């Protein structure tokens, strides 16, 4: 097959557990880019964060950030695709979460203004974990997150136990069917599991498919590599879907190939060398 586009997840895939891009991965991606293969980073991370890693590769590429809800090219930061949550849907989810003591980290599209996250003021220390309070950067605090007046909401994100998040996810889908795209991230996190709630149009695969179509690239000419539950759809539907050895059972079941090496062993480099015989 004449593959033309390669979409790679970051955390647990291209990045090691300590958030490095291994030399082997950089080298093979540089070779493939020189051969004309278009490379895309498809990640749940914010664009700002993903761009910092992408620049290490030294190649021009496009980033599908926030699980495809915002797509920008790194050469000029131009927005190519944006999928925002409906205001009423956003209000419903936040209010439902509060009923059971869940408070969101809100991913928003304010890259040019210098912030990407909104969190509520937390003077009593009950809304967010110590990890979130100590590690959020490029964020803005707001007294009541429902007072956010703009409509550039990309993702509503909750951190909690898997059982609590799964129950809330099921409740949202039951009460508001066909309204949201959701998944719970489980793999290699430094925090508890994370529930992400987005527009139905927002997914790595949908944005990847639309981007490829605009470039005249057929779905069968796409390779997708990932490790977690937010990668399942693109790995399942791409022309060639690859799951990392360290990936979740769900993504391994969806993949055509599973790497022989983990993200800490340059599994991306290993499988791409086999596929492209380099």
From TrEMBL:
Signal peptide: none annotated. Pfam families: Hydrolase_3. Gene3D superfamilies: 3.30.1240.10, HAD superfamily/HAD-like. The keyword Hydrolase applies. GO terms for cellular component: cytosol. Keywords: Hydrolase. GO terms for molecular function: magnesium ion binding; phosphatase activity. NCBIfam families: Cof-subfamily, HAD-SF-IIB. This is HAD family hydrolase. It comes from Caloranaerobacter azorensis H53214. The lineage of its organism: Bacteria, Bacillati, Bacillota, Tissierellia, Tissierellales.
């Amino acid at each position: 097959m004449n593959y033309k586009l390669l979409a790679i997840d970051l955390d647990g895939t291209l990045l090691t557990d300590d958030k490095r891009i291994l030399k082997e991965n950089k080298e093979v991606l540089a070779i493939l880019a020189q051969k004309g293969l278009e490379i895309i980073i498809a990640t749940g991370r914010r664009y700002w964060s993903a761009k910092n890693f992408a620049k290490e590769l030294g190649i021009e590429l496009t980033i599908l950030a926030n699980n495809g809800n915002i797509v920008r090219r790194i050469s000029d930061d131009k927005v190519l695709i944006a999928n925002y949550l409906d205001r009423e849907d956003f209000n419903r989810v936040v209010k439902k979460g509060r009923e059971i003591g869940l408070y969101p980290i809100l991913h928003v599209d304010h890259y040019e203004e210098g912030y990407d996250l909104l969190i509520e003021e937390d003077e009593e220390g009950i809304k967010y974990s110590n990890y979130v309070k100590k590690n959020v950067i490029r964020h803005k605090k707001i007294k009541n997150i429902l007072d956010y007046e703009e409509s550039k909401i990309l993702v509503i994100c909750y951190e909690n136990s898997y059982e609590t998040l799964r129950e809330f996810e099921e409740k949202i889908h039951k009460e508001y069917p066909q309204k949201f795209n959701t998944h719970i991230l489980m793999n290699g996190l430094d925090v508890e599991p994370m529930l992400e709630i987005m527009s139905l149009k927002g997914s790595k695969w949908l944005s990847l498919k639309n981007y490829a179509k605009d470039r005249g690239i057929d779905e069968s000419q796409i390779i997708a590599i990932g490790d977690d539950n937010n990668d399942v759809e693109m790995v399942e539907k791409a022309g060639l879907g690859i799951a990392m050895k360290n990936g979740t059972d769900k993504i391994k079941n969806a993949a055509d190939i599973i790497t022989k090496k983990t993200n800490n062993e340059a599994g991306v480099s290993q499988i791409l060398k086999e596929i492209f015989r380099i």
